[in-house]
Amino acid sequence: MMTILETIIFRGLMYAILVAVPIFLIILFLRARANRAKMQWFANLKFLTLRILVPKNNEKTPLAAEQMFAALHGVYRKESQFQDYFSFEIASREKSIQFYVHVPEHLKDFVEGQIYSQYPTAEITPVDDYAMEEKPQILSGEYKLAGTELNLINLDVYPIKTFPNFEVDPLAGITGVLSKLEKGEEIWIQILVKPVSDAWQSKGLSHVKAVKSGAINREGIIVSLFGAFLR
User: Which long-range contacts (CB under 8 A, 24 or more apart) does 193-196 make?
Assistant: First the structure.
């Protein structure tokens, strides 16, 4: 026989389960439906690859690229559930370094316009996607493949270094390595860009206020609730 306390605890647990399980299933269903809708939307998108050639005597500063990316934010659609994205890419093959942008077909003219506005002498040409080309070494099964993803080591409200913070051109260091590949070696670098709402501004301001008030430290760890215990 259960005691009164055990009965109360048992009933409480059963009630919590009866409430939590349906809520969990509803959340799971909504997420699955959202993911399915996103995958369907993405599957219907048609992309094309543009090769970008900029003359070696180009005198544009990195500020031009910053202005170009700022202008590309114009594709943001507030009323849309999903946002278009671009893939800016650097590919090194057979000691040749090429710059590409992978874009949705319906945004081709817009993207070209933003590039030309900052780099009037650039040559932009639609090409086949180099990533889809057949590779002899892959077909023969004699190849090595490695990949990595770069992530921020701090919260995204903290700024990362941009071109004014570097004493030398950071792109020169990358292209210097890419130019030293051996025959048959390739390196692909992809930077995915997607417009976001202005909500990140309020998130950043809230974080600054929390840091100033001592609610969290600079690493983003909450200290107000556990401060007394830690002391």
Answer: 193/69, 193/72, 193/85, 193/86, 193/87, 193/88, 194/83, 194/84, 194/85, 194/86, 195/72, 195/73, 195/74, 195/75, 195/76, 195/83, 195/84, 196/76, 196/83
